Amino acid sequence: MDVSIPINQPENKPKNWNKIIISLKSPKNIITLIVMLIICITGAALVLILLDWIKLGDTKKAFWVEIFSQILNGIFTALSLLSFHTRIIPFIIILQLLFKSKNNDYIKKQKSIKKYANWYNEQYDSLSFLLLVYVMWILNILSQASLTTLMWGFSSYDKNGIIVFSMITPKPRSVMLVFISLGIALSSSMFASGLIGYKLYKKNQLQKLKNSESSINI
């Protein structure tokens, strides 16, 4: 008998599936799943067209690139607007805490950050670290705003100079500015998420160490 295989392993699978099924019953999770699927499908189609793996003419290619780009931009603009207050309010609170002396109001404001950042723990996370994270989020908001302005404010043209999609103004959109804004938006979001993920990982490791030490002492 192979004792390395837990005898209760098959029983865990239904439980995991049940958790997934239960989570999908939540409207919020269903909407999140749908949005993620749209992003993945649209992003994949955009990449395939840009790499010419889907053969189209110049005008059709520019048209579908514009369509898929606008879909993605619309989704990320909506997400940016929905999370706007969760970025701005903590950022303002952090600035206030950095320039104020510690008092009762200081502690209240410090705890209020947890309403917008449930990963935050004042025992482990310094204000300078928080400031760095939220500077990245603010940079993400600004770059997304810039990207949205470019995408919705200026029209797109194909290689032959034929207008593909008319927006607010007929002026051609600067592709370079689009890529710069997109690069800043993606890099700032990834950097902020990476910092938070690293902190959560370190806290998890510290918690495991404490648990192991307490079990040894017992």
UniProtKB/TrEMBL annotation:
Coiled-coil boundaries: none
Protein's UniProt keywords contain Endoplasmic reticulum: no
Zinc is among the record's keywords: no
Keywords, alphabetical: Membrane, Transmembrane, Transmembrane helix
Positions of transmembrane segments: 30-51, 71-99, 129-154, 174-198
Entries under InterPro entries matching the protein: DUF2985
Pfam families in UniProt: DUF2985
Protein name per the record: Uncharacterized protein
Organism: Rhizophagus irregularis
Upper taxonomic lineage: Eukaryota, Fungi, Fungi incertae sedis, Mucoromycota, Glomeromycotina
